[in-house]
Records
---
Amino acid sequence: MFKNLLKKSDKKEQPIKTETAAPESRPTEADDQQSEDWSSGYEGQLAIDVYQTPDNIVIKSTIAGVLPEDISVTVDNDMVTIKGERKSTQEVKKDNYYYQECYWGSFSRSVILPVDIEADKIEAELKNGILTVKLPKAKKSRTTKIEVRAA
């Protein structure tokens, strides 16, 4: 999901100075273009925790740097989808990065719910970079008594 532009761990130990050592290669414009082609249209997958309490299904995710208005939570039948976009506030040229591991751009995650929920009572809150979505479990009983008639 994350990409490194320059991975030091992939390099072999180089002598500090030798006459035969090749200069360290840096990403070129062609590399940048290829990287942009690969990531264009790519959507990151949001990391989540999903657990239950006696009354709710709870979804939590760290979404630092995203404004509440840039997050969408939708429910469709038995599936919840969280979508959003983390926008970079500054422009940095690709060749000025040593590492680029933070994901910038659109992301989403869909979860199939294990129980029925009351969709009209869902609550979502973003506090200190943590998104918490509370999905109240439906109270309806699935047990139905059927009266048997004489024929």
---
Amino acid sequence: MIYTVECSFADPGSEAEWNDFYSLDKLPALISVSGFHTSQRFKALTRGCPVYLALHSIDGLDILAGEEYRQKGGGNFARWQQYITDWHRNLYDGIERAPAIGEGEYLALSATGPEPLVRLGLTPYAMQAVAMEKFPEQRWFAKVERGKVLDIKHLPDGAHVYAPMTAQLTSDGDAAAGKAR
């Protein structure tokens, strides 16, 4: 299953420090939780969505309700909580593992159907919301090569493009993609 966490951050003065914490401390802590298999962070290149997105491949909802998750990964944002806005969490079924998005790639997501991604010449994969907010109810994602012409400004509402902020971390400790900081 794919666990998504999305948010924006309202304090430019501490945003870089918050991003370092999330990317360098939080993601490694999460990937150490039993049942987490991959974790990767992204920053939106398009407007109309939360600025930050984290994709995690996990075994299921019970992982997020467990004591190990609460101790290692859940929360830990007290210092920055007042600045975290537009926060959303969802659990999606339909694919087992999130794709690793490398330095030369983008992640495209659509909540309006697969058509916007197909029109861009991409192969979309479907996900169905099964827990948490359950909105958007369905999403489609695709990898986009950065060299490929992508008309980001003319994507329909509900379709967004993200650049990787980190390599995808895996539970075996290896990065699945090249460093993307």
---
Amino acid sequence: MPYLGDYIGHLLSEVTNARVQADLESVRIAEIYASHPLLRNMPVPHFRLPKVDLDVPVAISDMKSAVDQEATHRVLTNMRESFPRVFAIQAKKVQIEVANDEKIRIEKELDKRLAALKKEPVVLKADQLSVQEREEAAKRLSITTITEDFISAAFRIMEPRLKKEAGGPERIQKLKADMKKAAFMEFSKYLHENTRLNVAITSSDLKEIGRESDPGSIMVKIRLSISEEAFEWSVVDSDGEIRELLVPE
């Protein structure tokens, strides 16, 4: 069964396709008008969809939890593997060289932190936790917390040496600030998806659910009011350079 968001997205896509088909037909008719001695002086029929109202019946049959042990392990592993690369790039920008022994120690420390994260109760037994326990565990598994944890692991190893170097403290602060931004940007792509709703949408499924009054499904009617906002290509001259821009009509 599809997700509710995907289903609504497909409906919107179909409405867009309806406008495309109408425009293509208008082009075909315009060519006919242009070739006819009488029709060429008449306006070409052109239809728009300024507002479309849809009443969509669906049955919510299931809910996919955002907490999935396998997916969470994969996300945490990806974050741990990408951190050294981001750290190396940012360290180079502030002219900090990471020694080989420091790289090895950082890798070991990250592995230790990763192992601890994978043992979080919300990862292992989410269904057995209370709401408060889930919220507290979610904070520990947030992108911000993991980013700060990994940065702390790296600097715990790097700081003793850097503090003794000329300009070391300043470069440390610069690298910490840059790392928070860069690591957060890198890790943001691993954010957990929200809980998804599975829905029954076909007429046969809805009739079956209606007849059986399935207690596991919730029948709802979604009213969508869609307003059209079209775009058109516009040619602009900017400093002698001709560019085409897609702008609202």
---
Amino acid sequence: MKRFLLAVALLAAAAAAHGSLPEHRPAPGGVAVIELGDAGQPRPQALYQDEPVLVVQAHGQWHAIVGIGLDAEPGEAAVTVDGERHGFTIRDRTYAEQRITLENDEYVSPGEETLERIRSDHRRIHAARDTRSARTPDDLAFRLPLEGTFTSPFGLRRFFNDQPRNPHSGLDIAAEAGTPVRAPAAGEVIETGDYFFNGRTVFVDHGSGLVTMYCHLQDIRVATGDTVAPGDTLGTVGATGRVTGPHLHWTVYLNSQAVDPLLFVAGEDATYNDADDD
């Protein structure tokens, strides 16, 4: 009887994990979770802005999991399945402002030689970001990649030496240099590199347009093509690239859009300190 109850408990836990969904927050930089229909039917192909999006099974239903870009305009939107619209509303959201002073002006107004390196970096970064492998993520309930202090939150409108730059596309977690950075979910390492702004960086493909990025690492402990399980070490916290102190910059890309990583971390209540890490 005890063995039976244990088996039931394990099956229930596995089912709960399989049914995990990110938080539904349809706003710029957020995620829309759209119910598509009975999971007893074949997996549908859902499109958002004419591009395929992640579709997963949870609670007996198929759901489209849509990343909404930080530059999205509030208003009516939809995913389509075989021409049928599944509508949702993108709500307005205002992000806070962050001003950072950097002593190295090359990180603010780079010269032509540096700009050529940055363009090359962007091509590699965008190729990894836009990966859409055929696999479906094992689980959408992420764990945090390390324990630390949340400093710069996702979406901040940033100014470097009083010059406006792109919004902050990830979550900064400060920790001592050398602290292990671990995979929040299963996936495959699809890119590693040492980039001008991002420093030493790892990209992990979790499947179907869900990709995570880990920046400013002190060292990298994986290689392209490696398969990782939740909790595997990807590298260690560092201060490489454009930084003012050791920390991890963690980005989650969903259908090529950077979205708030904490939407995938169940029960995580973000509390930020006033610090300028990136």
